[in-house]
Design goal:
The complex is a heterodimer of chains A (about 800) and B (about 110). Chain A folds into six domains: about 170 residues, FAD/NAD(P)-binding domain (3-Layer(bba) Sandwich); about 110 residues, FAD/NAD(P)-binding domain; about 150 residues, Enolase-like, domain 1 (2-Layer Sandwich), CATH 3.30.390; about 55 residues, no CATH class; about 70 residues, Sulfite Reductase Hemoprotein,Domain 2 (Sulfite Reductase Hemoprotein, domain 2), CATH 3.90.480.10; about 150 residues, Sulfite Reductase Hemoprotein, domain 1, CATH 3.30.413.10. Chain A is built from 26 helices and 37 strands. In chain A, the strands form ten sheets. In chain A, strands 3-2-1-7-19 form a five-stranded parallel sheet, with helices on one face. A five-stranded parallel sheet of chain A has the order 9-16-10-11-12, with helices on one face. In chain A, strand 4 and strand 5 form a beta hairpin. In chain A, about 50% of the residues are buried. Chain B is mainly beta and about 110 residues long. In chain B, the strands form three sheets. Chain B has a four-stranded antiparallel sheet with strand order 2-3-4-8, with no helix packed on it. A three-stranded antiparallel sheet of chain B has the order 1-10-9, with no helix packed on it. A three-stranded antiparallel sheet of chain B has the order 5-6-7, with no helix packed on it. Classes of the chains: A alpha/beta (about 800), B mainly beta (about 110). At the A-B interface, helix 17 and strand 37 of A face strand 1, strand 2 and strand 5 of B.
Chain lengths: ~800, ~110
């Protein structure tokens, strides 16, 4: 079915990288391409990382198939399996296979993967000597794996150990031969490697370390191995797992520039601009990769350029590793061998079988090795990629991210040991078993996919770490961790920071302008990106940008909080939590007049009226405005409340006028829009009755002044504030508060509370702007006050007077 | 068919929605950025959220309660969610909106 004008794309390699690129491409421009795929293996695309579970018998091959035959058909892809491309004619843009099929191309994608390195020793060609790279190798191994027979695996790396474990589970007597002193030396240090070796020895594997293989013995088939010292061991099966080598023979023969791999640019293009390459066969910025996560990132970029969006660059990947041997928890990421300028943090608990090592340079994480307790692996990895300044959390860094997931799971060490019935996502009631099943059945690789299919971590997000850990644990090896700069949603390839930067640097003033400048793929975005853009524009151009109510979530659009039955709550502002009989009477009368079903004292020292129909809102607001109230913004990503205690005015312990100060702070900050909700409290003494140390900004009054605390959170994931500094006067409290809010407003991603924001950028970053640099603080404070000039018009009053009246009335009523 | 005039196109803001109340429940009318108008029962197939209160983007609306995304043309939830908010015929003629209120059909 050749249609004229379609771009002919030929893909050499029917593996994970090539097919992932096609999938990404189909998402972007399904009809533009006429795609032909050549694969030298006879199977459709399968998940190569799951070869080990197939070998060990924990999985069937058919469960590893990612794209079955019908997928190729449905997408009109011409598939040639069992055929090897032997020639690329770059002059005429043709490829030719071993059996003479000639196919022309407009664009060529080389995804030929890698080959196992077969050591150049005598006997390498004997029957019974196998590589470990394809399902064909696995089938041969299984055919040869009679229980009781002896297998030797050459190479104690990740794959070698997985193969050894698999063969051992099949009942074979398995020995591992390795050049180095300990296994997995590229991922583990000596101690971690030693622990791993011990654990595997307990499972019956034998290790011959620091041995070089001189020859494979045998006449008609393998009988044994000889090491360079002359020592010999018997073997009926030898598996070569001494590493992989990019498969570049074809590219090289076509004159495409290769070094160790096919050399590609940041757009995944080879030196021939019509020819792209992805996966294990490429060399990018001097690096080759043998894991899945980088290859998926490459696929995304290659697809983006093939589809002529031209928006993305591949900038290399940092990778993490996990061994897929059931019951062994091991995690490794980054550079874990400390150099002269690095520092090491170590934790070793022999009784629990736990070992952790973190390597720091300039207060940033460079590497991590973990054994026995890998729960915090994704967290360390994230900080590594975000280059978070960890100086402020050094003391407890090794103990992990406390309360990962719901508070109830805080103490659970190994995610693998969680029973399937444990509820992981409390918001949506998703158990671990459901997540694991979805990952396996639906073949999910990323957090986004798990969210879409199971809803786990899709609501409040506090169990994200736990879900990532389950994902990593289920996929093993190399799950596709989220890149630290990930697109905000499916409408764009751009991340939050790109948007903030572009808006400011290019002076973009409307949502359509930003969408055009950053090449949005949808005409008017979606419910994820539009509210974010609206916020960024509002924060960047106070007084100038006209708020787009159509890009506001309903609560912020109608200035009330939607409830599950479609009614709304109304919570007027009660400054600093101080009210009066007259105010209470007014609220009581209004509540009675409107027959409010529930009147509730909120956690923020206010009074909430629940069950108000939308039509009734403007009427109720006008009565509240009449009585002197303004909106409490209890519905917004904005300043919520300033909680106070009665302080020195009444309390015998009070040290300062916390009530008066709280009211001043609230008068200054109310009405401001922030990336997420923002809560403040002022405590009159260190007894801290208003819980200032779990607020976004907390003031604790002491005899000699005011302690300022930031980044607290009392939600699902309780986080105590970080101490920012101590100041002497109320004026300084106001200045530091305004400056801190403004830094958060300008810096944080939309929907980041202060806690995750500070964890990402590091407290040191905040201190540099707010505490150490008086000039910067003054600028931030001035910008905050400038922005507040435009945001303190009461939205209730405006709507009571008729603004956006269409929001509150039905279009028509018909019988 | 029983066409009922319910208002004018400009009564609904672009990327917005208005509600028509009927004896059998509410119908939400949506107007897209390019002035197409669609009508669905004002109930998300998930937990009954009022779709009229959602954010309208492209030919879709996102439910305000739990972010299900509903296709305005068919009324079907976007995969992997599964369900259907029944749709109603709606026409725009000379700026007037006409709604076929009776038969809610699922086109998904």
């Amino acid at each position: 079915m050749m249609v004229k004008n379609k771009i002919r794309l030929v893909v050499i390699g029917n593996g994970m990288a090539g097919i992932r690129t096609i999938e990404e491409l189909l998402k972007m421009s399904a009809d533009e391409f006429d795609i032909t795929v050549f694969g030298s293996e006879p199977q459709p695309n399968y998940n190569r990382i799951l070869l080990s579970p197939v070998l060990s018998g924990e999985m069937a091959f058919k469960d590893t198939i990612l794209n079955d035959w019908s997928w190729y058909e449905q997408n009109h892809i011409t598939l040639h399996t069992g055929k090897t491309v032997t020639q690329i004619d770059r002059l005429h843009c043709l490829v030719e296979t071993d059996d003479g099929i000639v196919t022309p191309y407009d664009r060529l994608l080389i995804a030929t993967g890698s080959n196992p390195i077969m050591l150049p020793v005598p006997g390498i060609d004997l029957p019974g000597v196998l590589g470990y790279r394809s399902i064909d190798d696995v089938e041969k191994m299984l055919a040869a794996s009679m229980p009781g027979k002896r297998a030797v695996v050459i190479g104690g790396g990740l794959l070698g150990l997985e193969a050894a474990n698999g063969l051992s589970l099949r009942g074979m007597d398995v020995a591992v031969v390795h050049l180095c002193e300990w296994p997995m030396e590229r991922q583990l240090d000596k101690v971690g490697g030693g622990l791993l070796q011990q654990a595997l020895e307990q499972r019956g594997l034998k290790f011959y370390m620091s041995r070089q293989t001189d020859a494979i013995l045998g006449e008609t088939s393998v009988t044994g191995l000889r090491f360079s010292g002359g020592e010999e061991i018997p073997a009926d099966l030898v598996v070569m797992s001494a590493g992989i080598r990019p498969n570049i023979a074809l590219a090289k023969s076509a004159g495409i520039h290769c070094e160790r791999g096919i050399v590609v640019s940041d757009t995944m293009q080879t030196y021939d601009p019509k020819i792209y390459s992805v996966g294990e066969c490429v060399q990018h910025r001097g690096q080759t990769y043998g894991l899945v996560a980088p290859l998926f990132e490459q696929a995304k970029v290659a697809a983006n350029h093939l589809a002529r969006y031209g928006a993305m660059r591949y900038e290399g990947s940092s990778v993490s590793t996990k061994l897929k041997v059931t019951g062994i928890d091991l995690f490794s990421a980054g550079d874990f061998n400390a150099g002269a300028q690095d520092e090491e943090l170590l934790l070793q608990d022999a009784a629990r079988g736990v070992y952790k090592k973190l390597v720091l340079r300039n207060n940033k994480l460079r590497g991590a090795v973990m054994y026995g307790d890998t729960m915090d692996g994704p967290w360390y990895f994230q900080m590594m990629r975000d280059e978070t300044d960890v100086s402020e959390m050094r003391e407890h860094l090794l103990f992990g991210q406390m309360h990962i997931g719901d508070s109830g799971h805080g103490g659970t060490a190994a995610v693998a040991n969680l029973p399937d019935s444990v509820e992981v996502c409390g918001c949506n009631g998703v158990c671990k078993g459901a997540i694991v099943n979805a990952i396996i059945d639906k073949k999910l690789f990323t957090l986004e996919e798990v969210r879409a299919h199971t809803k786990a971590s899709a609501s409040c997000g506090s169990c994200t770490g736990l879900v990532e850990a389950i994902l990593a644990n289920t996929l093993g090896g190399d799950y596709s961790a989220q890149p630290s700069k990930k697109p905000i949603c499916g409408c764009t390839e751009h991340a939050h920071q790109d948007m903030q930067q572009t808006i400011r640097e290019r002076g973009l003033k409307t949502i359509p302008e930003v969408m055009q400048a950053l090449q949005w793929k949808t005409p008017d975005g979606c419910h994820v990106c539009r509210p974010a853009l609206n916020y960024y524009l509002l924060a960047a151009w106070p007084g100038e940008y006209a708020d787009d109510s159509r890009s506001r979530f309903i609560n912020e659009r109608v200035h009330a909080n939607i409830q599950k039955d479609g009614t709304y709550s109304v919570i007027p502002r009660i400054w600093g939590g101080v009210t009066s009989p007259a105010e209470l009477r007014a609220i009581a009368e209004i509540a009675e007049r409107h027959e409010v079903p529930t009147v509730h004292i909120t956690g923020g020292q206010r009074i909430g009226l629940y069950g108000i129909t939308k039509e009734n809102l403007p009427k109720m607001w006008s009565e509240l405005v009449e009585a002197g109230f303004v909106s409490g913004h209890a519905y917004g990503k904005s300043l919520r409340t300033v909680k106070t205690c009665v302080g020195s005015e009444w309390c015998r312990f009070g040290t300062q006028d916390s009530t008066g100060l709280g009211i001043q702070v609230e008068k200054m900050t109310w009405g401001s829009w922030t990336p997420h909700k923002f809560k403040i409290a002022v405590s009159g003494c260190p007894r801290n009755c208003v819980e200032a140390t779990i607020k976004d900004f907390g003031v604790v009054c002491v005899d000699s002044g005011y302690e300022l605390h930031v980044g607290g959170n009392g939600g699902v994931k309780v986080r105590v504030t970080d101490f920012l500094c101590k100041v002497a006067s109320e004026a300084e409290v106001l200045e530091y508060c305004g400056a801190f809010m403004q830094l958060y407003r300008e810096d944080a991603h939309y929907l980041d509370r202060t806690a995750p924001w500070i964890e990402r950028v590091g407290l040191a970053h905040v201190k540099r702007h707010i505490v150490d640099d008086a000039a910067k603080r003054a600028e931030l404070y001035a910008r905050f006050l400038e922005s507040q000039r435009y945001s303190q018009d009461d939205p209730w009053k405006e709507r009571a007077e008729g603004k956006e009246a269409h929001e509150f009335t039905a279009l028509a009523t018909i019988a | 068919m029983n066409w009922i005039q319910v208002g004018r196109l400009e009564d609904i803001p672009r990327q917005g929605s208005r509600v028509v109340k009927t004896a059998t429940g509410e119908i939400a009318l949506f107007r897209t950025l390019d002035d197409q108008v669609f009508a669905l029962n004002n109930r998300c197939p998930h937990k009954g959220g009022q779709l009229s209160q959602g954010i309208v983007h492209g030919k879709r609306v996102t439910c305000p309660l739990h972010n299900w995304v509903i296709d305005l043309e068919s009324g079907a939830a976007i995969a992997p969610d599964n369900g259907c908010a029944h749709r109603h015929e709606v026409r725009v003629a000379h700026g007037e909106l006409f709604l076929e209120a009776e038969a809610g059909v699922c086109k998904a």
